[in-house]
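Reminder: ligand-aware prediction takes two inputs, not one.
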Amino acid sequence: MNEHLFKILVIGDGEVGKSSFLHRYVNGQFNKTYKMTMGVDYSLKLLYWSDKEKVRLHLWDIAGQERFISMNRIYYKGALGCVVMFDVTNPTSFRSCRHWKQDLDNKAMLPNGDSIPCILLANKCDLAQRAVTTDSIKRFSEANGFVTWMEISVKENMNVGEAMRRLVQEIMSV
Ligand code: GDP
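Here is what comes back for the chain with guanosine-5'-diphosphate:
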């Protein structure tokens, strides 16, 4: 069986749900009080992609460093995929995605010089006080070079696995 190891980053403003997303994806749980320690956190997830292919995901969460908006190059080094996340009830976190994507593109690229496949995730779609429209997410995603975008709810477990599958699929096809 072929085995791949993919480093994937999860970036975005604080409180948008990055740690909850990884906790849900890796451990299948949503825990309101769950909070990882400060600094970069790692999780591992093993995917049986096909009969012939096994993928080990090395997931990096920036936990607590969001205030800098700009990350150390070391954090981006070797990454093959990225999730940029915002909170649909928080327009500031949506506007920040432009900076997060620029920071990524400035500091990281694939060995062939292309930019790293990146998906835009609009989290907390379960909440009624939504403040960012689907149309603006779509336009922003297309204008800023994202592979795709998805509306998700980590709380309701909506589109979490789907989003990661979509990203892994993109990395596999590079
Ligand atoms: P991070 O700072 O980006 O890692 O965000 P956290 O994962 O710590 O989440 C911040 C807060 O948002 C926590 O109170 C989570 O319980 C909550 N949260 C995360 N995802 C969702 C979601 O899909 N819906 C709702 N309603 N709350 C969420």
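Residues 82 and 121 are 11 Å apart (CA to CA). The radius of gyration is 15 Å. We will return to this case in the review session.
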